[in-house]
């Protein structure tokens, strides 16, 4: 095989111009495959990211249960003033004689009946169990959870020696997972490392507006310090937090690791825990499962109400205070169906549209590969015609038909594979220009790179098989007599 590869490279070197043109055609086809796959995957990831940022993939857990009795997002229902209870409709038929759906076969109705028959939770735990690292550990180990982060916030007075325009800062504590969960963008400097979070390093992040408010004469807030609790806290990064400038007329907000925030605020518990689920479709299921697990962790008996509050993005946007209890209860009890039927269907539609776009571009890439394959067949046919005497000499010296066929097939595959490797480089350059020049979303999959080279090699086999068979079927006597 190595001998065939050396002979193939030598043969290609004898026809440099033809080989170069063929390589160009094949490399363009492979580059199109790489660019199309990068654009399609990038668009898919951006669509999913936008859906997740807008859709209900965030769950917030807080200590204490302050939900009105007629609205319990965990499913514990109350009659709320005498109106008909949820699911009380008879299963046999309606008042107008119309047949009603079988409750036993309807998942929503069965779930409503289960909640109605559940034990009434009339006891309340006071004070509620504070949120701690135990809850975060529990949440992070749950299926369907992508990330979880605790939050601690409060005002802290600056030391007199701080020499800053304000006397108080609002500390917003965050965990290492928080920047990715909320989409923070690092403008300058760096984010605190995991080790700094664990050791309680005296570092903080600020937005541009807060940096200008605290250090108006400084060119950049990175590297500046603020005296808090007898310690100097240093700014290590400038961030762009979407929707949060952090600046206020009186108390600006700075972001510090939770360990520092808890120490300076003299608190051990978290104000809230934010959970990011893996996808929109599992948010309601994760919220329900989380409620059951937290009840076990907090050791709450069956007749005791939750001493925590779990709120999804959908429930946060739905009517609560000031609404008719019957409307609020009906809407909240069907939030799971809302999330699955609305957001998940939207996600599927956008993904289908993205796949259709990718398929259309992939068709163009396939045409480019087809043109490259025709170029491979052309140069191999020319090579067979020009080397007829060589083929006859090899056969006369004992070369078998399959040896001659393998020789030319290896030449075709080598030519296509070289074009594929050059195409990978061209495709990488094209994606770089597309992302940084046109600011389009791109993403490279290592699997797709391997597939692109494999497609080039397969193209070489398909289009080189005909010329190879033609060379192998030559009559040695006639081939030796040819000029």
Question: How would you describe this protein?
Answer:
The protein is an alpha+beta fold and 483 residues long. Among the domains are: 2-52 and 345-481, no CATH class; 77-117, no CATH class; 158-166 and 175-262, no CATH class. The protein is 53% helix and 14% strand. The protein contains 16 helices and ten strands. A hairpin with a 2-residue loop joins strand 6 and strand 7 (231-240). The chain is elongated. The protein starts with a helix and ends with a helix. The model is unreliable at 68-98 (pLDDT under 50).
Radius of gyration, in angstroms, nearest whole number: 34 Å
Structural class category: alpha+beta
* Poorly predicted ranges: 68-98
Oligomer: single chain
Q: What is the count of helical runs?
A: 16
Distance between the termini: 29 Å
What proportion of the residues is helical, as a percent range?
Answer: 40-55%
Q: How many distinct beta strands?
A: 10
Tell me, what's the shape?
elongated
Strand order in the sheet with the most strands: 8-3-2-9-1-10
State the main characteristics.
single chain; 483 residues; alpha+beta; six-stranded mixed sheet; 16 helices; 53% helix; elongated
Per-chain topology:
Layout: H1 2-14, H2 16-54, E1 58-63, H3 107-117, H4 133-140, E2 145-157, E3 168-174, H5 178-182, E4 185-189, H6 194-199, E5 203-207, H7 208-214, E6 225-228, E7 231-240, E8 253-257, H8 258-265, E9 272-277, H9 283-297, E10 308-312, H10 313-317, H11 325-333, H12 335-386, H13 388-396, H14 401-437, H15 446-472, H16 476-481
Parallel strand pairs: 3-8, 5-7
Antiparallel strand pairs: 1-9, 1-10, 2-3, 2-9, 4-7, 6-7
């Amino acid at each position: 095989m190595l001998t065939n590869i050396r002979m193939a490279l030598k043969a290609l070197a004898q026809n440099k111009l033809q080989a170069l043109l063929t390589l160009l055609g094949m490399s363009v086809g492979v580059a199109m495959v790489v660019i199309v796959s990068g654009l399609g995957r990038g668009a898919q990831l951006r669509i999913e990211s936008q859906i997740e940022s807008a859709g209900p993939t965030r769950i917030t857990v807080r200590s204490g249960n302050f939900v009105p009795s007629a609205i319990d997002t965990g499913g514990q229902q109350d009659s709320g003033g005498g109106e008909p209870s949820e699911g009380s409709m008879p299963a046999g038929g309606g008042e107008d004689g119309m047949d009603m759906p079988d409750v036993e076969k309807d998942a929503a109705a069965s779930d409503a009946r289960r909640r109605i028959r559940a034990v009434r939770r009339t006891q309340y735990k006071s004070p509620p169990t504070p949120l701690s690292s135990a809850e975060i550990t529990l949440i992070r180990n749950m299926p369907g959870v992508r990330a979880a982060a605790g939050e601690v916030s409060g005002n802290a007075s600056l030391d007199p020696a701080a020499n800053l325009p304000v006397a108080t800062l609002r500390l917003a504590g965050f965990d290492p997972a928080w920047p990715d969960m909320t989409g923070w963008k690092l403008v300058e400097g760096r984010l605190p490392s995991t080790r700094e979070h664990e050791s309680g390093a005296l570092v903080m992040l600020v937005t541009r507006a807060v940096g200008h408010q605290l250090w108006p004469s400084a060119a950049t807030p990175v590297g500046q310090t603020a005296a808090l609790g007898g310690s100097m806290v240093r700014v290590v990064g400038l961030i762009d937090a979407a929707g949060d400038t952090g600046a206020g007329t009186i108390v600006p907000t700075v972001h510090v690791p939770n360990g520092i925030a808890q120490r300076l605020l003299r608190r051990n518990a978290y104000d809230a825990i934010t959970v990011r689920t893996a996808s929109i479709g599992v948010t309601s299921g994760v919220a329900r499962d989380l409620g059951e697990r937290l009840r076990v962790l907090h050791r709450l008996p069956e007749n005791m109400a939750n001493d925590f509050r779990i709120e999804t993005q959908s429930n946060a946007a739905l009517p609560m205070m000031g609404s008719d209890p019957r409307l609020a209860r009906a809407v909240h009890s069907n939030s799971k169906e809302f999330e699955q039927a609305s957001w998940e269907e939207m996600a599927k539609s956008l993904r289908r549209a993205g796949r259709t776009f990718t398929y259309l571009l992939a068709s163009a890439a396939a045409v480019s590969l087809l043109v490259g394959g025709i170029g491979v067949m052309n140069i191999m046919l020319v090579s067979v015609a020009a080397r007829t005497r060589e083929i006859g000499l090899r056969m006369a010296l004992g070369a078998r038909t399959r040896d001659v066929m393998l020789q030319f097939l290896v030449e075709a595959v080598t030519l296509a594979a070289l074009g594929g490797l050059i195409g990978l480089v061209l495709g990488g350059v094209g994606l770089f220009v597309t992302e940084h020049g046109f600011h389009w979303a791109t993403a490279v999959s290592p699997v797709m790179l391997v597939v692109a080279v494999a497609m080039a090699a397969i193209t070489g086999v398909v289009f080189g098989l005909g010329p190879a068979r033609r060379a192998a079927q030559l009559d040695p006597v006639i081939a030796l007599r040819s000029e």
